[in-house]
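[Automated response] Your request has been received and processed.

Submitted sequence:
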Amino acid sequence: MSEGLAHLDRGALIAGGHARRMGGQPKGLIPLPDGSTPVQRALATLQAVCPGGVVLVGRADHPYSALDLRTVPDGMADRGAPGGVLGALTGADGWVAVLPVDLPHVGPDLLLDLLPHRAGHATLWQADGQLQPLVGWWHASAHAPLHRILTEGAPGFRRIVGLLGDVTVVDHPDPARFHNLNRPEDLAVLRAGGR
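Generated structure:
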């Protein structure tokens, strides 16, 4: 178990796909009511808790070049977010905090509150019974088994966690913290003052 941050801990922004459900508009660049963007909030969160630096995981033509982050490709093509986590773990020596670019309610507490629980291959939140695999800490030790799992197919994260074993899942009391911007309706709710 690791209760504090280590100098090797790094962060990874998972840039995701093509935002087709948002009409092609990059979800991380959508202006929020306070003038910030989800990707700015995610980056600030990772920079606050990751002394080892932050990388962006995604395709080479991602729309976040203004962030001036080193880009790491997905660890395996056509595997969705699990391929992004695999890319985040490539070359890692310790813990990697992962966050997607489209969560408007992130903050350092979402990662810091998991520190006392860090163990095994990953330490992740679950809220209202929903696993939150893109908000948490993944350990470099998960790289080889995750690669093996993704080579054999494209399972979802719930199945991946079951196959990996040695994953700590912690319940979070506020599911709204994990609402992302997937559809125009999500943005409308946020702009109307909802979560």
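Summary generated for your ticket: Residues 38-49 form the longest helix (12 residues). Residues 10-189 form a domain with the Spore Coat Polysaccharide Biosynthesis Protein SpsA; Chain A fold (CATH 3.90.550.10).
If you did not submit this request, please reply to this message.
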